[in-house]
Amino acid sequence: MTFTFDRQAAVVATRAACLDAWSLLVPVVCAGCGSPDRGLCDPCRARLCAPGGPGSDAGVRWSCPGGIPGLAARRYDALVGAVLLAYKEDARVGLVRPLAAALEPAFRLAMVEAARASDGVAPEIATIPARRRAARERGFHPVERIVRRLGARPRRPLRWAREPADQRDFGRAERFANLEGALVARETLADRRFLLVEDVVTTGATVAEAVRAVHAAGGVVAGVVALARVDG
Fold first, then answer.
1. What is the bridge-based pairing of β-strands 220-229 and 68-75?
2. Which of 84, 174, 184, 210 is deepest in the core (most CB within 10 A)?
3. Left, alpha or beta for 55 (phi > 0: left; psi -120 to 50: alpha)?
4. What pLDDT, on the 0 to 100 scale, is given for residue 109?
């Protein structure tokens, strides 16, 4: 009798066994639905990675300031909100894997489209800097970690010139006014092209301010890609 060894299957099985054992020592619940699991149950993982989100089989497109193309992997919903909250605020950094997997198709497509619009020259990947207080409290940059998980190297061309007020209770106009002039470039960005990466785009105020700051420093934003976009 001949036995064949499937290395990939063995690695997957070993990892699953280790995660099962770890979950007994440190019980966790699914960040999506709250059921006992290792972090994100299979049904929630499948829903998170479904292109476009509920009722859609494609990414979500919109136009950013100046006609810059925006592409989100999916529409924002309760599942995305719950997983991002656990990842960013509860420091459940293991969720970076499914979050990166959910973003990847839109990220790869946005890279191709940005390069096509620039005669084949790939743009630099840029993230919007985390607010100072959030950066201190979390100890990591959530979006940068997702980008690195995708095998890309994120740049930090911008910094906060001032700390804007918390925007959670602001309306659309208030958000834009609160962020106006808050970001500046770290150096001249002349002749540099960027693909901006965000986790969630709500009103688009933060993206608009980042685009303004890049352009003010002589750079170009070739596109914006996000994990999710809020409808409306």
1. parallel
2. 210
3. left
4. 95
- Is the alpha carbon torsion for 89, 92, 94, 99 positive or negative? negative
Give CA–CA dist 228/73, Å, rounded. Answer: 6
Greatest C-alpha distance within the chain: 74
Q: What is the distance between the alpha carbons of residues 172 and 162, in angstroms, rounded to a whole number? A: 20
The average pLDDT across 58-79 equals 92
Q: What is the enclosing helix (H) or strand (E) of 159?
A: strand 158-160
Q: What is the pLDDT of residues 124-164, one digit of tens each?
A: 999 999 877 776 777 889 999 999 999 999 999 999 999 88
Q: What is the pTM of this model?
A: 0.83
For residue 20, pLDDT beyond 50: no
Collapse the DSSP code of 187 into the 3-class scheme (helix H, G, I; strand E, B; otherwise coil) and give the result.
Answer: coil
Give me the residue label for tokens 């470039």.
Answer: 185
